[in-house]
């Protein structure tokens, strides 16, 4: 066997294998690698977009949370103002009611004083008649002296 012929045959087989690999194996392999690289690039781009969208969503959520917090504080302050107004209204109503009750009590007291004075006048007139009767030792007719007794009542 000749070393040159063996070397030449191996050289030819190597070139045929390289040509076959470059013609039939290499293009699908490169296509698969390119597709994989494109999928990875698309995945990274999608991850970047998702990250950007997530940051925007976080900002929107934070803005909504701040808005809800502000609205809650506003409602609380409105409720406190309304409670203060209700309390003031209740105080005013109570004050008005107290004034009305005091006025009614004063009016009632004045009426009772007037009635007591009238009763006292009647009792004084009766006592005066009895006193005069005892002094005169005779009975004084109340019906006959009604004008005199009424005059006495008005003077008292």
Automatic annotation (TrEMBL):
- Annotated GO MF terms: proton-transporting ATP synthase activity, rotational mechanism; proton-transporting ATPase activity, rotational mechanism
Could you name the Gene Ontology cellular component terms for this entry? endomembrane system; plasma membrane; proton-transporting ATP synthase complex
* Pfam families on file: ATP-synt_B
Q: Which InterPro entries match?
A: ATP_synth_B-like_membr_sf, ATP_synth_b/b'su_bac/chlpt, ATP_synth_F0_bsu_bac, ATP_synthase_B_chain
Annotated compartments: Cell membrane; Endomembrane system
- Main subcellular location of this protein, as a coarse class: membrane
Looking at the UniProt entry, the stretches that span the membrane are 6-26
Stated membrane topology is:
Single-pass membrane protein
Keyword terms, alphabetized: ATP synthesis, Cell membrane, CF(0), Hydrogen ion transport, Ion transport, Membrane, Transmembrane, Transmembrane helix, Transport
Reading the lineage from the top rank, the first entry is Bacteria
**PANTHER family given in the database record:** ATP SYNTHASE SUBUNIT B, ATP SYNTHASE SUBUNIT B', CHLOROPLASTIC
Query: Its function?
Result: Component of the F(0) channel, it forms part of the peripheral stalk, linking F(1) to F(0). The b'-subunit is a diverged and duplicated form of b found in plants and photosynthetic bacteria.
Subunit structure of this chain's protein: F-type ATPases have 2 components, F(1) - the catalytic core - and F(0) - the membrane proton channel. F(1) has five subunits: alpha(3), beta(3), gamma(1), delta(1), epsilon(1). F(0) has four main subunits: a(1), b(2) and c(10-14). The alpha and beta chains form an alternating ring which encloses part of the gamma chain. F(1) is attached to F(0) by a central stalk formed by the gamma and epsilon chains, while a peripheral stalk is formed by the delta and b chains.
Protein name according to UniProt: ATP synthase subunit b
What is this protein's gene name?
A: atpF
């Amino acid at each position: 066997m000749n070393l040159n012929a063996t070397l030449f045959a191996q050289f030819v087989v190597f070139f045929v294998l390289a040509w076959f690999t470059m013609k039939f194996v290499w293009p699908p392999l490169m296509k698969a690698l390119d597709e994989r690289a494109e999928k990875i690039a698309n995945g990274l781009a999608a991850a970047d977009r998702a990250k950007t969208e997530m940051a925007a969503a976080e900002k929107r959520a934070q803005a909504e949370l701040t808005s809800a917090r502000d609205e809650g504080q506003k409602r609380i302050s409105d409720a406190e103002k309304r409670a203060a107004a209700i309390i003031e209204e209740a105080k005013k109503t109570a004050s008005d009611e107290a004034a009305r009750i005091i006025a009614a009590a004063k009016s009632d007291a004045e009426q009772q004083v007037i009635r007591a004075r009238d009763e006292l006048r009647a009792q004084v007139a009766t006592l005066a008649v009895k006193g005069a009767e005892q002094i005169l030792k005779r009975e004084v007719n109340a019906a006959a002296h009604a004008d005199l007794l009424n005059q006495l009542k008005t003077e008292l």
